[in-house]
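Bench log, entry 3. Co-assembly request; chain sequences pasted below exactly as received.
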Amino acid sequence: MNNIYIKKSLLIAFAICVSAFFVDICKAEPLSPTEDTPVNISSVADFTNMYPRVLHTKIDTVLANGILNAKVFTYFGIASYGELTLEYKLDDGEVIPVEEKNIKNKKDLYIGTTKGDITKDNEYIDYRIKGTFKIPGQDDFITYEPADAGASSTTFVRAKVISKIEKEIDGDSGGTISVFAGDQSKGDNGTVIVNVPAGAYSGTHNIVVDFLDESSIDQGSASSKTRENVISNVAVDVEGGITELISPIQIKNLPLKNETKANKFFMQYQEGTDWNLISNSNLSVDKPDQLYSFSAAKLGHYRVLESIILSNSSYRPENRIVVKAKVGNSYPGFEFKYLQEGDTVKIYNLKGKKIAELKSGNSDGFIWEGKKGTDNNGDWAESGTYIYQIKLKSGGDVISGTIAFVW
Amino acid sequence: MKKILAVLLLTIVLVTAQKVQAAFDDTYWGVRALGMGGAFTAVSNDANAPLYNVAGTAFTAQNEVTLMGSRLFAGLEGVEIGANYAGFVHPIDSKYGTISFAWASISTPGLRREDTFNIGYARLLNDILRLDSEIVELSAGLNVKYLMQEVKFGENEKDLETYKGAMTGDIGLLAMFSNGIGIGYTSKYVVPADIGFMEKDEVKNINVVGLSYYNDELPYIKIPYFTIALDVIFRDNESSIRAGVESYVLDRKLAIRLGGREEAFNIGFGYEFAFANETKLVIDYALELPMQVEESYGSHFFSLSFKF
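Structure output for the full assembly:
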C-alpha cells in the first residue's frame, strides 16, 4: 500500500518557430526513453487564444523522482519537423536549440520532440510560430504570430499554455499534486492543487487533470436575457476502471481561460452528450485572480459556465460617439454586446427613417460601423445623431438609445 | 405663364442638385408647418417661413415672433432629443422688403447638437418685373446662415475640437397666383459648408419644389379656408415627398392640420387669440407619429407666436 507509484504530468510551455529563414536549422528530434519512473511533463501551447496570457508549469517545483522527460506538442498538424525551429532561451539571453540536452540550470531536463505526437490536423495549422519560446520557467514565455500577420511581420502575441496534470496516487492514503500554473504575464504563479483525500477510492490509480480542447466541447445553450459562455473546461479522470469516488477530489486554483465579467457561475458534468448542472461541486470563483476551484464527486468531464444576467443597458454600446476614422484595418463602430443570431439592431436618422440594420455579428455582439444598409454593406451614413432600436429574438422590450456618428 | 415657371423651377433644381456630404436637415422647424407634415415651401407666409422658404417672409403683413419647443420620439427610454426654434419676421415695407431672423437647434444632451443661425431677406418682385398683382405675386429671398455642430467627445477623441461650424446660405422663390395656386422653390445650403471634425464633411444641398392651393371654401365638400400643399425634396441622389392640409374653422380662430411623409404621420391644431390693434397670440401644437420607429408615443411640438 505504501509503495506509491508516482507519475506526474505537467505542462511545459513550448512554442515553435516556423519560418522560411530557419528551415535549415530545424533540428528537433524525438524524445529519448527515460528512467523507470519518469515524471512526464507535457506542454501544449494553446494557439487558438489571442489573450496575452501565459500559464506555465514551473518545472523545478515538481517533485520529480528522477529525470524529467519533456514532450513538445507543436499543434502543427501537417507541418513536418523540417520546417520548425525550436529554441530554448535562457534568462541571460543565450539561445539553445532544443535538441540540446542537459540545459544548464534546469536540472536534468531533456528537451526534444516526438514526431509521433504531431499527428492531428487541427485548427492550429493556420498559425505560424516565428521566434523564440522557452521551456517553462520563471520568466519564460511563448510568442507566436497569427497567420494573417504577414510574412514580414514582427508582431508577436504571447500564447497561453495550459497544463495537464498527471500523477499516480494511492486512494487509501490520499495525496496531492501541486503545479504552478499561474499567469506569468501578470506576475502570477498560482498553484493548481489536486487534493485526493484519504479514502477517496481504493488502490492506486493514475489521476489526470486535463484541460479539454474547447473545440471538442458543446458550447452550451444561451438565452437572450441570460447569456452563458463556457469559460473553462477541465476533465478529471482516473485510470484503472474506477467509476465511483467514495469522497470527492478537490481541485483548486485552476485558471479561467478567459477574462470574465460574469456575475454568476455554474458547474456542469457531462453525461453522454448532455451537460447537466451540478449543485454539489462547491464551485468557487476568484474573479480578481481569475481562478476557480471545485470538488469532483465522481469522475468524468466537468466544465464551468459563466452567466451574465443582462439588463437592457447591457446591450447598449458603451461608446455613444464614433468618429469615422480607421483604427488598424477596420472601423471601430458602435458595439452592441451580447447580441446573437436572431436579434436585430435598427438604426434610424432623426427623421425616423431606418437607414441601417444589423442582423449578424461576431461572438461578442453586433457592430455598426456607420454604414447604411444591412450589416454595414452600404455607403457611409452622414454625420448625425441616430436612434438605435435593439430587438431580441426572445421578445421583450425594444431597447432604444441615441448615438452620434461624425466625420 | 405657369408652364414657363414650372419648367424654370425644374431646371433650377436639376442645375443646382449636387452630391455633397453632411448632416443638417430641415424637418423639425415650425409647429404650423409640422402639422402639415412639413409641406410648407409654397405656403410660407409667417415666422416659420425663414427655414422653409425665405421668399415667403415677403408675404407677411405684420411683425411676428414665434418660439417652439418639442420632445422628439417620446416614450423611448434612453432617447432624449429636443428641437427648438425661434423666428422673427419684420416686414419693412413693399420697397425694402422683409427681414427675418431664425435660430433652430436639435440636440441630445451629453451627445450632440446642431444649431442653425439664420438671417434672411425677401422682397416682392412685382414692381421690378412688372408683374400684374391681380394675377400673381412673386417674391425672392436669401438667407445667410451659420451652421454649428457640437459633439461631446469622449476620452478617445479628446484631441478633437468640440465645435465645428461653417457659413452657407439659401435662396428661395415663391409665386402666389390669384386663383389660389402657389409655387415655391428653395435651394438650401447652396454654399458648401464643411462641418467635419476628422474629414471633409460638407452639408448636403437641399432643393425643394412646393405646390399649394388655397380656397376660402373648398368646392363640393365645403371645407372652409382650406390649404393643401405638397413638397418634393431632392437631396443628394434621393427624393422624398411631404404633403399636408390645413383648414380654419370657428371664424378662422381654430386651425386643423394633417400631413405626412414616408416616415411619419402628422396632425396639428392652432388657436388664435385676437387683441386690439391687430395684435394676435397664436398657440400651436403638432404631433408627429413615426411610422418606422417602434414604441414611441410620437414627437410633440408646441409654439407660441405673437403677431403685432
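Chain B has four helices and 14 strands. The two ends of chain B are 36 Å apart (CA to CA).
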